[in-house]
Amino acid sequence: MSGKFSWRAFISFGLTYAMVILLVSGLILYVSPPGRYAHWVNWTLWGLTKEEWQGLHTLFSFSFILLSIFHLFSANWKAFLSYFRSKRHNGFNKKREFAFSTLLILAVFFGTYFSVPPFENVMALGEDLTNSWENTEDRAPVPHAELLTLAELADQLHLESTDEMTRKLQNHQIKFEDVHTQTLEEMAAANNTTPAELYDIVSKRAGNSMQGSGVGRKTLEDFASELNKNADDLIQILKDNNIQADKKQTLRTIGENNNLPPRDVYELISK
C-alpha cells in the first residue's frame, strides 16, 4: 500500500457499509414481532434479538449521520455551496432542485404525520406484518408477563400456589433462585429456555381433564399406546427426570414410588 490516505474514499466506503446495514436492519425491524411477543418467545433472527437489531440500526444511523457530515464538510463543501450561488449570476442557484427536494421532504413528513395514503398504507402493512407473528397459543397471558415473577403472575392469573409451581419447576429440572424475586425472563435465561415455556410448565394442568377416566390407574404401556409413543422412550424420559418406572406399572404406582402425583408423571410423558 502506498500513497496518501484518501479521506474521500474512506468516507465513501463507510457510508456504503452504513447504508447497507441500515437497509437490512430497517427491513427486519419493519416486519419484526412486537416486543411483548419477541420477549415472551425469545425471538431472534440470524442470531440477533429484536433489541440487538434496534441497537445496530440506531448506532449505524449515528455513524451514517457522522460520516455524512464529514462527507459534506471535508469532501463536498465547495460543490454544495455552488448550489446556492453562481459565479456568473448573483443570487440563489439550483432553485428548482432545492424547491422540489424541499417539497418531497415536506410531503413525506406531513403525509406520515397525518396518516394519508400512500404513507398510511406503508405503516399499516408494517403493522400487519408485525402482528402476524402472534397467535393465540403463543400469546402471553398478560402484556410483558416475562417481567413478572412467578408469584406475581400466579396472583394476577389465580394460578396454583407458589409451592405447587416450585414443585413443577423442580420436576422439570428448572433452576431458579426465588419465585418471589426472579422474573420469568431471568429464569428463562438461566435455563436456556423461553418465558413462554416456563409459563406452560407452571400453568399446564395436563391430566386434570383425564382424572375422571382413571389417569392414575392406567399403565405406562397404556399411555404409550394412546399417545402413539414407544413405552421404552417414555421410560427413558422419566429416567432423565430421575423417575424410576416400569412399563407395566400404573402412573399411580410410579408416582407413589417417586413421591409424585400421577398428573406430574403424565405431564412429563405427554410433552
Question: Structural class of the secondary structure composition?
Answer: mainly alpha
Q: What summary fits the major beta sheet?
A: 2 strands, antiparallel
DSSP E strands, number: 2
Low-confidence segments, given as residue ranges, are: 206-213
Number of domains in the coordinates?
Answer: 3
Overall helicity: 55-70%
H/E element sequence: HHEEHHHHHHHHHHHH
C-alpha Rg (nearest Å): 30 Å
Q: β content, as a range?
A: under 5%
User: Strand order, biggest sheet?
Assistant: 1-2
Number of helices: 14
Shape: elongated
User: Distance N terminus to C terminus?
Assistant: 62 Å
- The average pLDDT score comes to 80
Q: How would you describe this protein?
A:
- Helix 9 crosses helix 10 and helix 13 packs across helix 14.
- A two-stranded antiparallel ribbon has the order 1-2.
- It has 271 residues and is mostly helical.
- It folds into three domains: 125 residues, no CATH class; 59 residues, no CATH class; 60 residues, no CATH class.
- It is built from 14 helices and two strands, in the order ααββαααααααααααα.
